[in-house]
Each structure stands twice: as C-alpha cells, then as structure tokens.
Amino acid sequence: MGCASCSSGGGTPKGCKNNGTCSSGGCNKLEVFDWLANVSLPAGQTPYELVEVRFKNSRKAFYRNANQLSLQVGDIVAVDTAPGHDIGVVSALGELARIQVQKKAPNLKVSECKKIFQIANQEQIDKWIQGRGLERDLLTQSRTLALNLKLDMKISDVEYQGDLSKATFYYTAESRIDFRQLIKDMADRFKVRIEMRQIGSRQEAARLGGIGSCGRELCCSTWLTDFRSVSTSAARYQQLSLNPQKLAGQCGKLKCCLNYELDMYLDTIKSMPKIDGKLQTEKGDAIHMKTDVFKRIIWYAYKGETGMVALSPERVAEIKKLNKEGIKPKDLAEFAQVKEKVEEIGYQNVVGQDSLTRFEKNFSNNKKRRPNRKPRKPNPGGPKNEKAQ
C-alpha cells in the first residue's frame, strides 16, 4: 500500500486502491478502527464537533468542523494553520473522536481548536502531493548544510505544509543546538519558512517506523501513543539478561514491550517468599540460583556444588521459618518438589508397517521340479542338434 498521506508510496494508491482507508496497516500509521460506525446517535443529539485529522506519519491533531461538512473517514480536508492552510486525512470523527479527545487531550477546549475549511479540491491535492515528492531531496540537502556547519544534530524527517509555504524539520540532539545560521542557509536555498522541531528518540522511531526484533512493525508507529519510562528493573524482575543489544529497540532506548508483562510478574513475585538470604541446613548454606515465575519453582544450590534443588515457594517459606526458630533441616532434598512421573506411551509398530523388508519375498534355494515335467526335444535343424550328434 502507498498513498499521498505517507512517505512510502509517492502519491500513487496501490493494492486495493482505496487510498489507505482499508485499515490494512500498510498506509496508515496509528490507524483507528471505527467500531462505532454502525451505531446511530440517539434522537435529538448532534454529532460531535471535533474531528481527528492525521498528517504525515504519526502526527495527528483535532480540528473543529464549524461548517458542518459531511465528512467520512479517509476524506482529504484543508485545515486552518497560522498562516496558510494544511492538508490532512480524516482519521476519526463522531463519538470515536470524542473518546480520542478524552484519552489524548482531556483538557482540550472546543473553542480553542482550529477549523476545517473544506474538503480539499484537486488543485490543493496536487500541490500536497508535489510537496511530498520534494521532501526527500529537501532532507538530503538540509543534512548536508548541517554537516557543513558541524552541528551535532540528526535531521530525521521533514514535512511540507499543504500549501508549500512552510517546511518543518524534525531533529534529535543530545544537547542544545544553535541552528540560527542553519535556518538562514535553509531559507536562502529553499525559499520557504523554516521551522525546527526537536523530538526524542522514541518519537523519531514512531515517525519513521520500522520492523522490530519480534518481526512485527514497531508498536510506537502502529498503536502505542503514550511513551512510559522503561528502566532496567523491568528486565531484572522478568529475569532477562542485561544485554543492551537485546534489550534496546530501534530507537536505542529500552524496548517499550518490557512494560507489557511487568505488572503480572510483580503480582506473582509478591505472592512468593523473598529470595534474599540463604537457606541454612546441616549440609551447608544454600544460595538462590533462579526462579521460574510461571511454574512457581525456586532453585537453590549448595556452595561448591553444581546441582540445583527445585523447591516450591511454600517449602522455601517453611525452611526460612525453621531457620528463624534456630532449626536447620538435614538436607534440601527432603523438601524438594517431587514431580509426578507420567508414563509416556512410546511408538509401537503394531502391524509391521515400518519394516524395511516388508516388500521383499523370501525364495527358497532348493527348487522342486515338477514330477510330470517332460524333457525338451532337440531341434533337428539347429546348431544345438549338431553338437548333440
């Protein structure tokens, strides 16, 4: 899929030729499924005035449908900007837009939102598509200008306004950048108003998109909108190896998916005894080695020994209680978790269908002659007859 509303298709709809409104995931980033589309409003209730409009990549904003235009998801509209106008695609409206506003901007006032002018005409769409085609060359030249000025910044994306009067450059930097000279050089070369907008590494990955190590599209570019902080403690609770190459995502930060199952791990760990300290026995002190949260098994091992003993959380709590009372068990093997042996039914060759010689026939070496077999008569005219004489 590729359409003019993203940077992947160059403005030519492909696939089902539905201009990116088929919700296949190939065109739209952060697409919204309108699960309220078939639900009619109660009698006397007016439709929600705000409309969610999506621009290039993952940038979205809410606009007011002051002219009561008949809009549908996927319509290309011209919206108010200061100054000029911009072109975007309607991504949510009606009650679904109300839910999006409550989720993303609960303090948003309807009167402060900008208006939707009209449904874009063909001339506006052509200019919009023309701007999308110029963005790649604009990005290359801006990176060259920043490199010549020796600025420690990375320009990751550029977006033209719908009327081609302004270009917004998105960049990432570790520290503050003085790009006043860079803006002057860009304005002289590109002949448009320049806006520099700094974004974080996670926002950069959300705008550009990509494929994660799981083989799926990045969560931040498909459905994830709130970026919560991820710490290394999330990996420790899940007993993952602290390898930066495996824990880091495409943005270079810790993967957001480390937080997905963290609450379940924390709830399970709370119901288990603390693993700090040692288990004292007559055989020696046992040290905690690892814990299987899902199977609820805790492994301990004696100092200097390689073997480990599997204990249930209840057994560990029982041993710790005995140690507090000054009692040392004889051995951890007495408290080891005994697994029930399940008899495995092996494969049996019942009818001999796997025999390698089942297609061979055994022939006896001693062939019995027929009793009434007559001897062959010699051929009088042949060469055998001459030899017989």
Model description:
The chain has 389 residues and is of the alpha+beta class. Among the domains are: 127-204, GMP Synthetase, Chain A, domain 3 (2-Layer Sandwich), CATH 3.30.300; 228-271, no CATH class; 279-335, no CATH class. Helices cover 25% and strands 17% of the residues. The protein contains 10 helices and 12 strands. The chain has helices at 95-104, 122-148, 180-190, 201-208, 219-222, 232-237, 244-247, 262-270, 313-324, 383-388; strands at residues 50-54, 60-64, 76-80, 85-92, 116-119, 154-160, 166-172, 193-198, 279-280, 285-292, 297-302, 309-311. A 5-stranded antiparallel sheet has the order 2-1-4-3-5. A 4-stranded antiparallel sheet has the order 9-10-11-12, with helices on one face. Strands 6-7-8 form a 3-stranded mixed sheet, with helices on both faces. The model is unreliable at 1-26 and 385-389 (pLDDT under 50).
Key features of this structure:
single chain; extended; four-stranded antiparallel β-sheet; 389 residues; five-stranded antiparallel β-sheet; alpha+beta; 10 helices; GMP Synthetase, Chain A, domain 3
Write a brief caption for the model.
The chain is of the alpha+beta class and 389 residues long. Helix content is 25%, strand content 17%.
